[in-house]
Amino acid sequence: MDLVAVLVLSLSCILLLSLWRQRSGRGRLPPGPMPLPILGNILQIDAKNISKSLTNLSKVYGPVFTVYLGMRPTVVLHGYEAVKEALIDHGEVFSGRGSFPVSDRASKGLGIIFTTGSRWKVMRRFSVMTLRNLGMGKRSIEDRVQEEARCLVEELRKTESSPCDPTFLLGCAPCNVICSIVFHNRFDYKDKDFLNLMRKLNENVAILSSPWIQEKGNQQTEFTTEALINIVNDLYGAGTETTTSTLRYGLLLLMKHPEVIAKVQKEIDHVIGRHRSPCMKDKSNMPYTEAVLHEIQRYIDLVPTNLPHAVTCDIKFRNYFIPKGTTIITSLTSVLHDSKEFLNPKKFDPGHFLDESGKFKKSDYFMPFSTGKRICAGEGLARMELFLFLTTILQNFHLKSVVDPKDLDTTPVANGLVSVPPTYKLCFIPV
């Protein structure tokens, strides 16, 4: 038998074995499309819009289904009920972190975002405690965000009402807030070290992020220098890009809807005025602005399929058997754009978060930061930044589009892991 025949026979055996292994385990898992050998269901998923592909599959297979990303099964949860049941009602079991090859190689399983099991619990507890000790949720952090908001306004004034792409400046502001927490020092936007840090953060996103020296000799401790470095990397990655993208998208949506800007600025004039900086106490008296911030986050659907979870033990879920270690994808799109909760989910409408009397209305479906055990640890800081940055900008500037607002395209340029807003220019006209 010649070499070619041997290779063909061997490959055929591998393919048949792969198909048998996939099909033999599918009786216990939730239903789903038939996978191809080795490739699985990859050809049925649009890499540029994974969320839409999963929504289409849910129409056929229901709110809980299985897809194969290669040879490994992944269970997809679609819709509020399924996501809530898993991440909240069975939060401990679904608190594992699914495989994320690029980040796994970079972080080596360290940090907060991509760790799992006991290591994740230890490092998250440490991170939350440390951030609180550094002022998270306290007035000192609010002061830093207010200071950064004022610096951002001064940088925007330097554009002298000329058309500009706000991406860089909107990235500097939240990054500097993290710097002020970690290093107790902010940087000038032209500082070489700061610019180098920004460049590395942007590169990381494009690819997709001491006192403990008594511990040096303890090989069992989680508090190694490498682990702490990865925690800081996670803080920068999660605390900079997400807020930056939300602000960029927010300004674009506001330009698209000038009537919304007018109402927010009217509320700013009434509650804050023009002669003092916005503060967090103002938020409770600004229901429309709060609704706008929520609607921006709901509408842009920043992380459509969430970060992958995994089950930490075998579980019977809705009469299906999900074995320990199985990767879980939770569709946040299906929750944030649920037509049962939001009357017209594809339309940008702050009324989704207002009651009949104009008061702010909370929604259990609002999950831009995920939910359950692995909800974003920086949610409080992100909410503070979005409110203070946006209100400070609108307190000082009118936003003028360089094209007719009706012609602005708000479609994301990438809708895989993160919904990336399209680039645009605008003029910041001093009030």
TrEMBL record:
EC number in record: 1.14.14.1
Keyword NAD: no
Keyword annotations of the record: Endoplasmic reticulum, Heme, Iron, Membrane, Metal-binding, Microsome, Monooxygenase, Oxidoreductase, Signal
GO molecular function: heme binding; iron ion binding; oxidoreductase activity, acting on paired donors, with incorporation or reduction of molecular oxygen, reduced flavin or flavoprotein as one donor, and incorporation of one atom of oxygen
Positions with a binding annotation for heme: 376
Gene3D superfamilies documented for this protein: Cytochrome P450 (1.10.630.10)
Superkingdom of origin: Eukaryota
InterPro entries reported in the protein's UniProt record: Cyt_P450 (IPR001128), Cyt_P450_CS (IPR017972), Cyt_P450_E_grp-I (IPR002401), Cyt_P450_sf (IPR036396), Cytochrome_P450_fam2 (IPR050182)
Signal peptide: 1-27
Pfam families noted in UniProt: p450 (PF00067)
Cofactor(s) named in the record: heme
Gene Ontology terms: biological process: organic acid metabolic process; xenobiotic metabolic process
Compartment(s): Endoplasmic reticulum membrane; Microsome membrane
Main location (coarse class): endoplasmic reticulum
Membrane topology: Peripheral membrane protein
One of the record's GO cellular component terms: endoplasmic reticulum membrane
Family that this chain belongs to: Belongs to the cytochrome P450 family.
Protein's name in the database: unspecific monooxygenase
Source species of the chain: Spermophilus dauricus (Daurian ground squirrel)
